[in-house]
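Researcher: For the annotation table, I need structure tokens for YncE family protein. Please keep the output clean. Sequence:
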Amino acid sequence: MKLLLMTFAIGLLAMAMPQTLLASSCTAPSISTTVDLPAAPFQAIASPDDCWLFVSMAISENRGAVAVLRNQDGIVKLDHRVELKGAGFGEALTHDGALLVVTTDNGIAVLDVGKLERNDSDALLGTLSSDAHAGSVYAAVSLDDRRLFVSEEYARNISVWDLDKARQKEFGASALIGHIPTATAPVGLALSPDGHWLFATSETMPPTMHMPADCKAEGPNGHPHAQGLLLRIDADKALSDPVHAVVAATPAGCNPVRVALSPSGKTVWITARGDDALLRLQTDELQAGTHDIHVSKFPIGPSPIGVAVRPDGAQVWVAISDRFSKGGGGRLAGFTNIDSVTPTSVLSAPAPGFPREVTFLRDGHTLIATLFTAKQVTLIPTSR
């Protein structure tokens, strides 16, 4: 009788759990692997079981797709793709593995992960109606999976959305909670491990701050400009009073574009693209009213963009894009001893073709990088 009851209970539990959480974990590639894609990839994110990779792609200005890559016994191949109504940029996966959010130049797409894996025709649940001119670029999901934060590069703010309404297929204006004001060109977002804080980068301070133009021009059409900022945002206050949710800010070099946190939440890493450098600071120093904040600066190569801390906290990896050079000599750089005065380089892998974003498989050791102009995704086992 006890065995019967136990079997019945397990069956009920299985029916209640999302399909993505039931599958056994898939083996990561044992060697470096590169997958060709039909369009330029922006970001890649793994399913909770490492059996799938979802890659946002830009096909044209108003057309994009999610490339769905399947991992079978450590062999990763393109399985299919799902069209989007706009070029695909930043991604975020809910912690329950049920929803994939993709920012586009035509709003914020919300997709059902199970249907996405099965290539169902109705995988796209709907689009959150962001202003097409806002420049939605990066996304982060709250730990309870109820709220979504999206940096809007052209609108100079971070929009806050109600994901519960998206699950109920309410994609109208009522799903928008409000906007967090930022400086010029907000891009990178990272939530603290406890979910209480949201860290965001803005590429430059606004002219109204009257700061000196210390940063050199980027690219042929650029011009000298002021440093950018790292913002510390109260994620809970952003739900009730987003206009006043920024609690602290500090200069963060020239064109800070991405941000990543250590697993402890005590250290924040920033890529300062215009400084060709990786920055490090302690989150406890970034408090309201604090002015004496120590920022360590490590020159690492031309135009770094993506940054990711390995889940065990042992390494930090950077996509050195070299995006403004005619040579296109991008590479991926990994560092260990990351709390020391000067981190130690552990690997420098060539990555020609504009390496843009880096993250890790859920195995905690396999690096994923998108190569934008090469139209590829590469997976690299890192040292254990």
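Researcher: And a one-line annotation?
Model: Residues 1-24 have pLDDT under 50 and may be disordered.
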